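okkk here we go again. third time trying to get the copper (II) ion bound version out, last two times i messed up the smiles copy paste (missing a bracket lol). double checked this time i swear
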Amino acid sequence: MSAWRLVEEESEPRQPRTGRPRTGGRRMLVVAAVVLLTLVGAGGLAAARTGMFAERPDGCVKPDRTIQLYAVELPKDGTQVRLGYGLTPQTASYPGPLMEMMEGECLAITLHNQVPEATLAALRTSPTHPLGVSLHVHGVKYTQDSDGTVQSGSYVPSGGSRTYTWYAQPRNNRTGAQGTAGYWWYHDHVVGGPHGTQGLSAGLFGGLVVRRPGDPKPDRTYTVAFGDRQSINLRRGEATDTCTEVNPQPGPTCLVARKGERVEFVVVGIGNDMHTFHLHGHSWADTRTGVVSNGQPFADSVPIIDNKTLGPGDSFGAQVVAGDSVGPGHWMLHCHMQFHSDAGMSTMLHVLDENGNMPPGMDHEHGAAGATSATAADGGEHQHD
Ligand SMILES: [Cu+2]
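finally!!
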């Protein structure tokens, strides 16, 4: 039962039916709202609230699928604290695992906070800010219960767990709902302060794809988050590309594909800077789902691009056929704001031949093999079955 509803129920019966406008109740509502906002602003109500809001969005009768997600502390990157989400604690990474949903699907995600309280305390910007991690998502539907914020009380203290419900609302011609298919992302909204700024910059973020039935499935998906300090997935320069020449392992710092594979990028803007996402040798249809249109592949109304602007909080997707027409090679992927790419915001999409080999003569252009050790598992890459 929400405090708002309590106020309305109490105020209404007390109004005499005089025919005059009933301003008293409205005034009480305003006063109550100011009091409530003040309390919320002070964080006074936040921690203890459970079950005050609807558990699930309209249209989600019960979850179709349940997954477990773990927030853990990872080895430091220099002096920088690193946190990650993982489907298991052992596979946590930054970016976190790619989430995939089908329009119409309702997904329950139980987040387990295994980040030590001392780490969260060291990251917080105010001594009164609560200690916890959360899961906040873009694009799909969720109620206040799953907002992942302090003011809704929807976060997880250290050692605790909480279930978040996401609903990939489908298109509906009758209501005009546009549907939720497309490229989105999820992130913490609590670590450090009320906007999760420290959680985000520590690594608590990941990509989300919502597809429609019948959409072509890519062979592999890479999440690439462009952030502050000219970083791609929080790395820059040589650290953005740790592919080894022999048996490169796809991951957040190793973008690799065979010629002919359909490669999908989930591109996310984190931090405070504007960027552009540019890929050499490939171009893509600039649609919200990566799909051109059913049976009409040659529509000029769909822009074909190889560079796209990315602001903070933005996300979009790109689907390319690796090496199509251009063949194997080390294809650069970078921000096209020149002072960003010059500062290290650049990596490679390594396109191997159909047998998984880099043809002879192309090795001299190899990016930054073995420059750093990968600290994360496979969060940035998702291979489809
Ligand atoms: Cu940039």
